[in-house]
Specification:
Elements: H1 2-10, E1 20-22, H2 28-37, E2 41-43, H3 46-52, H4 74-77, H5 84-105, H6 110-113
Parallel strand pairs: 1-2
Length: about 120
């Protein structure tokens, strides 16, 4: 991310591109680190699935998900414990952590932090 950001800035193209960090993000601190490296957008995949109730059995492709997250079989889908509110609450907690960490750094917005390595 940092190298891409730096190259785009050097070539005067940074404002024309949106950098997205995705993969391995689990907390507000991760969001802040990616912002400092130059990311504009942040994707949560695995951790959002876990917040929804996934147990990471890694059998999604077999239609045999033990908790019914990734299954079309009605008997398995009936086991699904998750709700959209679980994911929404997780994202609210991440947002609150981002706000707290930004306040500790003395930064008022993510835009002020993007690409800052000091």
């Amino acid at each position: 991310v940092a190298e891409t950001h730096k190259t785009l800035v050097e070539n005067g193209l940074r404002e024309r591109v949106t950098l997205r960090a995705d993969g391995g993000l689990r907390s507000g601190r991760d969001v802040l680190m990616m912002a400092a490296l130059g990311a504009d957008e942040y994707g949560f995949g695995t951790v959002a699935m876990v917040a929804a109730g996934c147990i990471m059995a890694r059998v999604c492709h077999t239609n045999n998900c033990p908790v019914g997250v990734a299954s079309q079989r009605e008997e398995l889908r009936a086991r699904f414990p998750g709700t959209p509110e679980h994911v929404a609450n997780f994202m609210l907690f991440v947002g609150e952590e981002v706000r707290q960490e930004m306040a500790a750094l003395g930064v008022r917005s993510l835009d002020e932090l993007i690409g800052r390595l000091d």
